[in-house]
Amino acid sequence: MSSIKTMVHPETGATLRRSRSIETVTYMGISKQVEIEGWFPDDGGDGVLIGEDSAPLDAVLAEMKFEYLKRTQALAKNIRASTGLTQRDASLLLTGSPNSFSKYERGVAQPSWPTYLLMKLIDRDPALINTIRTA
């Protein structure tokens, strides 16, 4: 019984061979490289992952989600400390929801990407909170 040496890409028709590739995974501004094994064309184009081939990607994505959650928790606490806002005031001013900062600080919710960017700007320049209040 012979093992499969090549396969055809289901969309491009390219010949794929079993090999390793370094892929960059990005999540909410965090990027990491991970080595994966799968079926790839010789020209470096898109490959195909089957079964457990995607496990390393899933693992690094889980790590990045946890890292983003920790960053968000720290950022929310830093903003409130530097601006003197209560959780409720920060929530209403920056998200319109009365409990969002409580959720961010406890790690039970994550802000949207635009809210996260706004939080980063305020963390760099807490005086921006006054501009937001008068907008």
Topology:
Layout: E1 6-8, E2 15-27, E3 30-41, H1 55-83, H2 87-94, H3 100-106, H4 113-124, H5 128-134
Antiparallel strand pairs: 1-2, 2-3
Helix pairs in contact: 1-3, 1-4
Task: Provide an overview of this structure.
This protein is an alpha+beta fold. The protein has a three-stranded antiparallel sheet, with helices on one face. Helices cover 47% and strands 21% of the residues. The mean pLDDT is 93. It has two domains: 56 residues, Ubiquitin-like (UB roll) (Roll); 68 residues, Orthogonal Bundle (434 Repressor (Amino-terminal Domain)). It is elongated and about 65 Å long.
Name a few traits of the molecule:
2 domains; elongated; 5 helices; single chain; 135 residues; alpha+beta; 434 Repressor (Amino-terminal Domain); Ubiquitin-like (UB roll); 21% strand
Kindly state the percentage of residues in helix: 40-55%
Q: Spans of 5+ residues with little confidence (pLDDT < 50)?
A: none
Order of helices and strands: EEEHHHHH
SS content category: alpha+beta
The coarse overall form would be elongated
Going across the major beta sheet, what is the strand order?
Answer: 1-2-3
Largest sheet: 3 strands, antiparallel
Number of folding domains? 2
Determine the strand fraction and express it as a percent band. 15-25%
So what's the CATH class of the largest domain?
Mainly Alpha
Number of H- or I-type helical stretches: 5
